[in-house]
Every structure is written in C-alpha cells, then in structure tokens.
C-alpha cells in the first residue's frame, strides 16, 4: 500500500501546472469573436488584458468586440487609453468608426483624417476613405432634412402620419398620405420608397418593382431600393434577384439608427434571421423603441434563432409600448 502511495506521489510531482498567459486568453477571445459568441469573447479578452495590461493589441481587439455589440463609448474609452501610452495609429480609424456609429460626424471626420495623415498607406486606408465619403453623404442628408423640417412644417405632419401607418402595416391608409406627400414634396425620396412598398403589399407588385428599378438606374447605390427589391423578390420567390440585392445589404453598415433598423427588419422579413439578429443587437434601443417594427421583427428573429424567452420579453415590452401589437399573433405565429 505504501508503495502505491509513493508511486502516486511520484506521478503527481511530475505534473507540470498549466498557467494560462495573456496569449492563451487572447486566442480564445478571438476564436469566440470569430464564432459571433460576443459575451464569451468579452470574458476571455478581459482576462487577456488583466494578464498583459500594457499590450495595445489586446485592448484594440476588445474595442472591436465592443463596437460589434454596439458599446461604442466603451470601445473609444479603451482606444483613447491605448493612444495615451503608445502611438498605435490604427486606433484613430477605429475611434472614427465608433464616432460615426454614434452619429458624431465631426468627431469621426477629425479622427479619420488623423489616421490618413499618420498612415497614408495603412491597413485601413480604403475603409477610411469610404468612411469619409459616407460622412460627406450623411452631412448632405442631414442638411437637406434640417432645411425641409425647418421650412416645411407640413412635411413633418405627412411624415409622421405615413410613418404610423407604415409601421403598423396599414397599407391602404398609408398610400393616399404618401401620394399627397410625393405631390407636395417631389424631392423627398424616402416617400417614393414607402410608396412602392405600400403598392406592393396592396397587390400592385409589378408597378412597385418597376419604381425601385427606375430609381436604381439613376442611383445604383440607393440603399432603400436594394432593401425594397430584396423584400419584393423574396415575396415573389425570385431567388436569383433576391440574392443580388441581399448581397448589397449584407455589406452595408449605415450610420443612422433608423437605416440600421430598416436593414435589420428587411433581413428578418426575408428569413435571414442570423444576419438580422446581429443587426438588432447592435441597435440603440432608446432611439428605435418608438418603432413597432423593432419589437415585431426583433422578437420574431429572437424566436427563430432559438431564444424564445428573449422573444417573449421583447414582445411583452413591445405590446406595452405599442398596444396595437397585441392584436397580432406574436413571434411564435
């Protein structure tokens, strides 16, 4: 018996204890991130940073995870800390990207220009130039919207009325409001996209598709046309055309929350639930909770990706915020 104990003791003395270092935690965090398991990725990356608090790569990777889940302020706080201790120039682009998501376009422009100044041929050069173009477009859109809302109070009334009917899928009520809006404000393009959607769901499908195709000929990058056509072709079971427009959507990450929501809803309505779920979790709830479509399609998406409890919570909250939802079947319908 003593001999057995001695052998066991001898064996235990030969065991080398495994003490994970920062690189191990970092690798596990990256693997979880690549598998879209963001909560797990955050936990591993926090351990990596604790093990190597001065490693800028770890903190930058953590900031990328925060960006992916919509924690833009937390991401920028990490990146700012990195810049205080080292000249890790990629941080400037990453900060600019987060500011753009927050709608802080002046700050985004400042940091993206800093990045291009310091890294004219850097890894993110093309992304940085694309972001500048996006900021320029957003600035123009914002100026146009401000002008219309300031000088045309009547437009706001039509917008809100159309918004209410569209969000509640009351197509027959929405159509005459949108037609009047187009007559009075022919330069207001969003009304034309709402018009085609109302037409489609009222049965005038060919006409609706043609409207969007005509708009797309004039401007091939019109996001709303790609969203509507993806939805239309999905409903028409025209898979090849659907995939073409869906591909355009999957590569777009807008700045404004309303556009981000509209893409998420389009993905959900076309049964791209995994993609839709990632878009929904990145939304700023405080901005989009006034949209019934947020609760209607987020709860449906959660149910479809295997989270029935979350789906139920979203639906119950949505019914409290928007009582009209209680007349619908809910996500399990």
Automatic annotation (TrEMBL):
Pfam families: TPR_8
Keyword terms: TPR repeat
Source organism, top-level taxon: Bacteria
Cleaved signal peptide residues: none
TPR repeat intervals: 22-55
Protein's name according to its UniProt entry: Tetratricopeptide repeat protein
Biological source species: Oceanobacillus zhaokaii
